[in-house]
Amino acid sequence: MNATIGVVGGMGNEAMADLAANVASLDGSADHSYVLYGNSRQAFTPEEADQEWEAGDPPLLRKRATGEFTAALLQNLGAAQIGLSCNGAHPLFRDIFRDLDADFVDMIAETARVPAVDDGVLVLGTSRTLEKRLYDDDLEAAGVEAFQPTPRNVDRLMDVIYDPEFGIKTGTVTDRAEDLLCELVREECDRHPAIDTVVLGCTELPLALTPESIPRLKEEGALPEHLTFVDPTQVLAERLLDDADDAEPPSVSLAVDDSPHLDYDPPFAARVGSLSEMVTLQSNLIEWTMEYFADRGASVGGSYLHLPTLFFVDYDRPIPLDLDALDLTVQEYDAIPSEPDDAIERALERNFEQVSHLL
């Protein structure tokens, strides 16, 4: 039986598909099975996202309980190595995985080992990631000088990621987001000539600065020629495969009512034959969710509003979960639908009903 690799997603819905695509591009990816839980209920709601919270506040209690459930479910499904496709949630999941037997492959710690010791590294990310110095401390511990954008450029970077009209979280990389991102990178390189590496420390940013777009942007003069860009998602993909082995953690108890703070909504669950099929289906579900909202005069304003998803990829064993207790029906797909089928339509309707009070 091949080793199972797990992925925690849902706090950047495109990011889980991006990580899966990166894994699929690597030699040896077909030697493993995968479980990927895009649990969007781990994200902040739109009204919570712009506020500061202290330990013990209800939003943080909810995020922890929901994260614990998500991680335990992946371990229960046999995932021996688990990665997280979100930067800002790494401190939380480092703590959660201390109580689990599955190995947490830490994207931030692994990324900090990539630059050479004589590099000057510009760290890009959300304001929370930068304030917490999630990459800076690990980089500096490795002897690498880390730089952060100016407060003005942090604000612009947040617009690149979150702006409801042109931000990457809308599901599309717009020209305006790309132009603004390149402009602030040029400004920071002018301020700090030592910078020769840029860490894309938000899982949305590698969707804009890709291996295909970066050479084009350099040729157009939008990005400095000398820069090297590090995509933590790619680093994580490589480490997940490097560290995979045949160990299967023991099952753990799963119950949806263990904690009064748990925010559980049954995900749309599907079993598919390859990571490429999973990427296509997840990308379709993101698009169909946005269309479903738009048809009802609303927009998807943040990860929490997206449809929760759970994927079994090349998972050729019985699913060791009480599906009835979890209110789960696993759809089996030999071919990925090009438009929503009945099961997807029901899932989209249910999701909209669950979050419509937040619109």
From TrEMBL:
It holds the Pfam family Asp_Glu_race. The keyword Isomerase applies. Coiled coil: none annotated. Keywords: Isomerase. Transmembrane segments: none annotated. GO terms for molecular function: isomerase activity. Gene3D superfamilies: 3.40.50.1860. This is Aspartate/glutamate racemase family protein. It comes from Halobellus litoreus.
